[in-house]
## 1
Amino acid sequence: MANAWLRLWHDMPNDPKWRTIARVSGQPIATVMAVYIHLLVSASRNVTRGHIDVTTEDLASALDVTEEVIDSILQTMQGRVLDGDLITGWEKRQVLKEDNGNISQTAKSPAERKRAQRERERKREQNGDCHGASRNVTHMSRRVTTDKDTDKDTDQEDQNTMVHGVKNATNQAG
């Protein structure tokens, strides 16, 4: 799987639930948030998305803390952000949109979405339900003339004009 992504919400770092979990578990808020990020990644990688399968030992090793620290955080997260091994709100927040047509997620690949858009546009045009027909658009006419340089006297005047404060000396009389 090449660079799979998951989503965070903008206020995630400031969400008061992390401070509550930190206070109740007796652990630093940074450790609480780090555990949650690891849980999100685990849930995203899992075949049954949203379910965590990372062990307490793995989390403790990854974060360089004891298993007791992880246990206290996980117990405090229960009922707040975890329901057993399921991250609460996963289905609502982690919708798969661009998963290259994974049928089990009923998401379409970008190519499939574009194909469907083109088909909708084609049908709209065939049915005469086109926005262009209802608009009052003013069409501009373009009249382009090509100058054949018929103004010979203007060219003569240009030769007698000042260049950098000095009168051009070509074709000067007397």
## 2
Amino acid sequence: MINIAKEHKVNEQIRVRQIRLIGGEGEQIGIIDTRDAMNMAREKGLDLVMVSPQAVPPVCRLLDYGRFRYEQQQNEKENRKRVRSQEVKAIKFRVKIDDHDFKTKTGHVRRFLDDGHKVKVTIMFRGRERTHPELGERILVRVAEALADVGTPEGMPSMMGMDMNMIMAPKQAPAPKKERTEESAEKAGSAGETEPVPAASAAAEAPANV
């Protein structure tokens, strides 16, 4: 795979007389005049893009530059999203928290989990509250139960100073049963083996009608 830089010379921006050309399917065409390569690009409805300007002669490739840029931007967006998902967000609760505040803060945790973030849930103790860690544990249990559909606790709660902490991680959605069944069928077919599925088993695995 050729790594194309963000800034490239495209079509008429390519001023050299000869280039080494790579076709739209990655095939090596060889060293040809740039003018001939431009004509070839026009005939195929593609762009001539310089992918390796330091080579002698420079290497160019035939491709749909607009589509390539779109795919590159989508990949960059996914990479940024992946980096953001590695951030750990933090939401703090008090030991004495009313139902309204609990619901509001739990909603914040839910949004972070939905966005793919881990969340550190912190219970803050004041004064003598620290002598009753079970109060903080109860709140953390409530949080975990309220968010069981979108997240799971990582490890046990831990005390740090006057705070009790628990990390909630996003829950990965399981692959649909239909896809797993099709994948198994493909593997069995490629191996030249087919095994009968008992009727009871097939009925159990079939998704329920809603």
## 3
Amino acid sequence: MDLKFLTVLLTDFIPAAADYLHHAWELRRSLDEVEDMVRENTDGDFTEPSTEWGDADATRDP
């Protein structure tokens, strides 16, 4: 391998990839926490949207 290529690989690419993976892992963990909070607050039933405020399409002109 070329020394310049190896230097760039070790100093730029590998730390950037590790940083990206670390942030992706934190984001996934945060999304899991949000999903758990939604499940707790909705008793696990959050598949159907609320129609408490009425149907938004009913007020539109055809």
